[in-house]
Amino acid sequence: MSNDDIPTTNMNQRVPVSIQDEMRTSYLDYAMSVIIGRAIPDARDGLKPVHRRILYSMYEQKILPGGAHRKSATVVGDVLGKYHPHGDASVYDAMVRLAQDFSMRYMLVDGQGNFGSVDGDPPAAYRYTEARLSRISMELLADIEKECVDFSPNFDDRLEEPNVLPARIPNLLINGSGGIAVGMATNVPPHNLGEVVDATIHLIRNPQAPIEELMRFIPGPDFPTAGLIYGRTGIEQAQRTGRGSIVMRARMNIEKAPGKGERELIVVNEIPYQVNKARVHAKIGELIREKKIEGISEVRDESDRDGIRLVIELKKDVVPQVMINQLYRMTDLQTSFGVINLAIVAGRPAVLNLKETLAVFVEHRRDVVTRRTRFELRQAEAAREIVEGLGMAVTDVDKVIKTIRAARDSEQAKADLLKLPLVGLEAFVRRAGRPESEIESAKARGEYFLSERQAKAILEMRLSRLTGLEQEKLAAEYGELCNTIARLSAILADEKLLFDVIVMELEEIRTKYADKRRTEIVASDADIQDEDLIQEEDMVVTISHAGYIKRTSTSTYRAQRRGGKGKIGMEARDEDWVTQLFVASTHAYVFFFSDKGKVYVKKVYEIPLAARNAKGRAIINFVGMEQGEKVAAIVEVPKIEEGKFVVTLTRRGQIKKSELTDFENFREKGIIGVKIEGDDQLLSAALTDGEREFIIATKQGMSIRFDEKQVRATGRATMGVKAIELVDDDAVVGMGVTQPDRPYVLAVCEKGYGKRTNIEEFRSQNRGGKGIILIDASERNGPVVDITLVKQGDEVMLITDRGQMLRTKVDEIRETGRNAQGVRIMSVDGEERVVGLERLEESSADESAEGGSMLPPAPDGGGEPPSQNGGENGSPDGDGGAPPASTLN
């Protein structure tokens, strides 16, 4: 249809409109209606329209504090009929929230009856409950009749309602707000009134004060349900930007279980804001039934009118703090409050920081007090006009009475009074005790003519006002009105006096309503670290040639005698064997370096826990390694901090040092740790403090020792520099980092031989040389497998390609010179070969000994007969006749 075919009428003309434009315009109109008219609070009084209408309706109906409670249905009906044409549920629900002490930090409605509970119980119907305004809500409505705020017509233009309440208190901050509009939401936490008032006064006195100063007055939200705020980061972010996430925690106390011996109770006395206690109770019971939490025997709710008391009874020997951390992690006893400080400012939604929020309130109070002062000034001037006219009539009473009596009616009397010159102004002002300047001004005026309002007041005046006492009262009232007018005029003329009034009223509010902070702010990291849920202990981490990983408690392995066959440490097949072993705390970081130079970061407790003879889990699935990668080195990192370095070494002798903090922003899919070129492979990695020395060993028995300062720190994605000059088909097999308490170098060869040599026998050289002999890599010994630095009291683990593991004390390996061949440490059969060496801390040995007694030599643990072993000094067991050593079971 063309435009010409569109029918028209005399009343209007149909105009074609694009449906896209119409939908856009209509939806924006609807969205703004929801934003402004329903869901988002006004930044000035902190109220949404429905809350404002409820309070104003109750004020109009005189349902005031100190008076009788009225049925909630009365309030709901009045609000619906006059101001809020929506469902009754929306009005009653809003009213209920204003009366809940667990929802509002300072309740605005004083409810009587069932207004719901912290367990999520619904309120009774509005025909059963009663309500009245609370004392503090009167501070929101104070002076509303003094023309200090704008009014607008209601929905049917019969009445008028306030656009905003005068609000003597910064209600948006002290009670908070929450709501979801179209395309935006608000979530403002409640705060402590005393703290907010102090910050507001400081801002009035110091308008240029930075947010940091205001934050000293308002340390953070103060929730009606008390509890804890865990960490300050979210608070500071919210106060600076208007957005942030605040971690809330329940307050838990540990008590002794009465009559149950050493058993303990965890008692929850305070819960996070807006958390349903009954649901928390049910959730804990569900976790117990599903055995996701072990160690709790019973949970019961002993709450009463005196407060919350959720009792969690622990089983015997359960550590309460570990259980508390698990409850925080798995239930709503820890939750977060997402702050979105969105409010309506000048008719538009805006996200406000702390200073902006207070500034909007201060500007609102400035406007309210200015308009109120002007209103009071007008009222005082009008009252003074009447009193002045009555005073003149009393002073010249004979002339006034004569004029009135001569008139035929009241209208005539009024007209005659307006023409009547009076001369008693000077006497009246003098009687009122006014300053000499006002008396002189009255004298200068001479004749005084009445206004219409004064003439009308005189005609309505009682004869009793003509008595001497009443004349004195008129004079005193006149003087008081003059003083009031002078004070109000001064306030309007001087902004400082205006703000003094605002401050004085805020101080009165603080005196009347301020209370102690309920919510405690705990200065700590807001996140519960996973290791808080894990008991700290040492774990043996084993890596197989085929790329399987597991962790096993060191107590699983018991000590045996040196020279034994050992026990199975991992189930191994013909094509797989254990290649690496590492001991670390469950709480430590573990850096997994692949042979390609990438780094994958995990915590020890994340490594799958398995039995001693279990295969473990494929690393490629555990850490997300790429196809073809293998774990080349594992580094335990207690924490990532400055002043520490990660040193890596490749099989071709390239050494590189990088700052540990360069690895701080690790990713799940790994990051580049070192650049690897050609067919080279990463071999080893270590954590240092920049003050160490390195001793590096090669397969053919060579070694080099040099200072760490010869390796300068570079970025992660670099190759590094040459550590040792390799010859023929030689390759690097291990690296030791010097420690003050580890004076010995322990080297182990493939056929189970090794030796312990003092590190001082290896002179320090410059990096990049060919080095000196470490051990004779003869046919008897085989190629060198690895080296480690040890001290007396240490134990070491040896691993073969068939999965055999042996643990022995370093003290039982006799110290020899650098040129010695070494002694037999572990017996290997046929083609079996040693593939790994790992030093164990002395403390680990002690802990493992507790897991089982120190065993005598087992029938299969004695290895080959001594006469078959041979030794460098011709002794039967190759160690000069040293006594047998204990080894790993």
Key traits:
889 residues, alpha+beta, Topoisomerase II, domain 5, Gyrase A, domain 2, Topoisomerase, domain 3, four-stranded mixed β-sheet, four-stranded antiparallel β-sheet, disordered C terminus, GyrA
**Spatial strand arrangement across the major sheet:** 14-9-8-17
What is the CATH architecture assignment of the largest domain?
6 Propeller
Mean pLDDT: 84
Q: What fraction of the residues are assigned to beta strands by DSSP?
A: 15-25%
Judged by helices, strands and strand pairing, the structural class is: alpha+beta
Number of contiguous helices: 22
- Major sheet summary line: 4 strands, mixed
How far apart are the first and last residues' alpha carbons, in Å?
95 Å
The gross shape turns out to be elongated
Instruction: Tell me the CATH topology of the largest domain.
Output: Neuraminidase
Q: How many distinct beta strands? A: 43
Quick one: CATH superfamily of the largest domain? DNA gyrase/topoisomerase IV, subunit A, C-terminal
Taken together, the total number of domains comes to: 4
How would you characterize the overall build of this protein?
There is one protein chain. With 889 residues, the chain is an alpha+beta fold. The chain is built from 22 helices and 43 strands. Strand 23 and strand 24 form a beta hairpin. It is elongated. 41% of the residues are buried.
In short:
With 889 residues, the chain is α+β, with helices and mostly antiparallel strands. The protein has 4 domains: 38-188, Topoisomerase II, domain 5, CATH 3.90.199; 248-335, Gyrase A, domain 2; 364-506, Topoisomerase, domain 3 (Orthogonal Bundle), CATH 1.10.268.10; 534-853, DNA gyrase/topoisomerase IV, subunit A, C-terminal (Neuraminidase, 6 Propeller), CATH 2.120.10.
